[in-house]
Amino acid sequence: MGIFSSYKKSFKARIILPAVIVLVVLVVILNFYSSVKFLHNTESLIYAQTIANINSLMSYIDASKDSSRTAAISMALNIDAVNAIKKRDINEILRIFAPMHKFYRVNYYTICDSEGIVLARTYAPDHFGDSILNQQNVLDAMDGKIATYFEAGTLIKVAVRTGAPVFDADGELIGVVSAGVRFDLDSSVDELKRLLNAEATVFLGDTRITTTIMADGVRATGTALDPAIAKIVIEDGREYFGDADILGSPYKTFYKPLLDATGEAFAALCIGIPLAELKEMSDILIRDGIIIGFTGLIISIMILFVILSSISKPIIMLSDNMDNVADGNLNINIMIKTEDEVGQLGKSSQKVVDIIRKLIKDINTTIIEHEKGNTDYCLDIGEFQGDYQVLAGRIVELADLGALDQLTRIPNRRSFDNRLALEWDRAIRGKTSLSILLMDVDRFKNYNDTYGHQQGDVALRTVAKVLPQSLKRTIDFAARWGGEEFVVLLPDTDSSGALTVAEHIRAGVENTVIPSADERAAKVTISIGVNTQIPTQSSSIDDFISKADEALYTAKATGRNRAVSGAVLGERRNGVQGVESA
């Protein structure tokens, strides 16, 4: 009795057993008929070949996208290419890019400036100076994104294109590299025919622009796609797999719509296997197969309808719950009480919802804390497992990218601005003083020129380590201001206290040994401008920072390696003159 009860609870058994019975009946009937009528399996082989061709075509398309993307990204990062684009040297651009076609397996490169004006085309060297802002991959690249689309252009009708932004050494956008693999060439369809052993055609809209199908000894270009298939493939943007009449001959075909950046099908790829020799046999098999198929289908539907009616209710409930999840409603509880596989699926689905709910909550908390300038806060990836842990880790990395300076690993300018706004409002409410230390590494350009930028980076990282080590309170905040400049924010600190901290930092930097093979590069000093203020509603953050900057200017102009507060500036304004430029 226990075994039978367990069996009744098994969703799998309730589906598989009747399905097996139905399939056995159908197999017996079909095998009996096939032993008389079905003399060979050519149709099945052609079907299998078409499926294999579809998979190969998809792989070919994916490989083309990958080639386009790799080619665009690689050349956008190529130092020689970047320099040539920045100089707008057309001959140098063509010299660098032209040999890369074969290496990256692309057909062409189009290079434009930051305004979308073409600097060079490798496939049409004499055609430049026009705008290509009508191409979405270029527009996306100008926004800093790397994007791959199927697109039609002025000279190239059908191609997969990737646009990659090109930045100079200062991080400024200077142009876009667009790399493409063409599908509108005779050589492209010839290559597909060689790979797939099937006829290949490329449509622009519903018109053949290149094909391996011949009519009167020439390629049958300029002919139209069957209107019914055009409705599916071009108008609806859906794939079509099945039989088709092409120029009066039957084929087993597959049509793949090529969607542009807006999701509209502007072109299509077609592969086809001729079926002329099988048509007569297919007519006989289809006629008799329809009779048997419908008979078996009616029997199957009747049996399955009765069975599925008793088990569909929890599935519908689970489906409705998951639709809510898909619509963004995570505040649900999946209430399926059955003990079969559907019940287990419901419990697993609820577990997934709980994990996603917690992950989203932790992400939101992390974002809120970082917006407050609390860059030390981050979600605990140890609370997640598997791919969720990987995702949580990636989120932590992204949080670091947004909040930390990637060279020094201390908070960046954006984090500082957020923290300053927070502390400024807090000081207004509490009527407390707020101090800022704006500091600059002395003669850093000479240091870089003498010992190299790599050693300069080491020096900046070393200085960055001194800052948090010199701060005694958790509310004090150090960040990289930009270049060789750093900044420290000291809430609830008066001018005297701020100068004390500044001197502590200055001495700490002066006494710190910078790792270097050259002993002369082991020391740097910093100048610090200090400003203290009790903010009010009428106060300006810009003025607050500006006064610290003036104090920094004075510190550098009066000898460097020193800290100067706003009080010194006041004295200078009241008559102390003769400070030389830093």
Structure notes:
The protein starts with a helix and ends in a 9-residue tail after the last helix. The protein folds into 4 domains: 2-39 and 281-310, no CATH class; 60-182, PAS domain (Beta-Lactamase); 185-274, PAS domain (Beta-Lactamase); 413-573, Alpha-Beta Plaits (2-Layer Sandwich). The protein has helices at residues 2-9, 11-37, 42-76, 79-87, 90-97, 100-104, 136-142, 186-196, 227-235, 279-309, 312-326, 341-371, 386-403, 413-430, 444-451, 453-470, 495-510, 541-557, 566-573; strands at residues 108-113, 118-121, 147-151, 159-167, 173-182, 199-204, 207-211, 214-215, 218-219, 240-246, 249-259, 265-274, 434-441, 477-482, 485-491, 526-533, 563-565. By secondary structure, the protein is an alpha+beta fold. The chain has 19 helices and 17 strands.
Quick take:
With 582 residues, the chain is of the alpha+beta class. The chain has 4 domains: 2-39 and 281-310, no CATH class; 60-182, PAS domain (Beta-Lactamase), CATH 3.30.450; 185-274, 2-Layer Sandwich (Beta-Lactamase), CATH 3.30.450.20; 413-573, Alpha-Beta Plaits.
